[in-house]
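Hi everyone, sorry if this is the wrong subforum. Our group has a chain we'd like a structural model of before ordering constructs, and none of us has done structure prediction before. Sequence below.
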Amino acid sequence: MILPSLRLAAGAAALGLATASTLLAGPIAVPNGSFEMPSGVGQPFGVNVLLDSWAKPANPGYPEGPDAGGPGVPFYWIQTAGAFIGTSPNSANPYTNLQGTQAAYLLSIPGTGIFQDAASTDWSGGATGLNATFDIGSSYALTIGLFGKAMANNFSSLELSFYYREAGNMVQVGAPTVVTYNTATFNPAGPFTLLDYSVSVPTVQAGDAWANKNIGIRVATGSSNGNGYWDIDNVRLTATPVPEPASAGLLLLGAGWLVTRRRSRP
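Answer:
Right subforum, don't worry. Here is the predicted structure as tokens:
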């Protein structure tokens, strides 16, 4: 039989450790993480093809422009991602849970995407502003709100991933989170509510190639037949340091003090 005092100590220690872990977790600011800049106000259909603080990959070789034929893009590559006003009355299908008034869109065409890190630049040539690093002893999570529309059911996909740069190249960290479009999850009839999806990096070890390297975050089209698009908003990046052994020991001592104090009461 476990004595009440021991149960109390164990519970207090577990609660203390959980609380400490929660308190140590912290957000890392993602520049323009809700895609409010530049504004779509005054633009055709409330859409702005420019995105502050986010970079777009180069056109992988599609012919561009209204006369593009075959597998070409019947518009310009810069139009494959942008921001739009997603709130009523400025949107035909407003979202119920936008962060701010705008969201981003990403056409479901192979090769499209948006990303940012300490070395990337946006449409203006300015630095994106994400200057965080993969610190040893911390784990990381990237979470975004998503909704897919008008794509190939159970085929079209979107990938969320972390990366770091090595000699200028973008090197992916771990496996991406793959979101596959299906009408059961993304009901074309609505309601239009963005759904959260996340990708994570486990606790960074000293021997990891990405240890102390600048963090890169990326959202990119996976499989696609070129139809439809993804709407994206509320990009969140968090770091969770692992409590040091000394901190855990102090928490246990605190739990013991709590038991002693409880037993000393009349």
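For your construct planning: The helical segments are 4-24, 245-264. The CA atoms of residues 148 and 223 lie 13 Å apart.
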